[in-house]
Amino acid sequence: MILERLPMPLTVCKVTSIREIDLDAGFCFIGKTDEELSLVCETKDVPASAAEREDGWRAFRVRGVLDFSLVGILAGLTRALAERGIGLFAVSTFNTDYLLVRDTDADRAEQALREAGNEVVRRGEAE
Fold it and tell me: What is the mean pLDDT of residues 5-31?
């Protein structure tokens, strides 16, 4: 599996309205349920009116488009982090999965993912 370590600091936050979200921002993940409206975005793009926020996250993106029939992708990746005591926040899009870890754990997470047999590249690095 090839993972891409994204360079920008991210924030996980709770917002009260979708109108507060800059949908043209470079990285924006919205989760809406009957109980809340959550946003993961670059820290610089957090809406001023965010009700709650947790700064200090970094992301690893599974490179490529994952077929819905694939089984155990997240399980294998999260196991590697759990074995090192690294907590995570996972989000999935139609195409792929993202693992967010605390900024303070990002280097250890990268090492754990490599030792589990994954290739980790930094966005913008030659492959």
Answer: 93
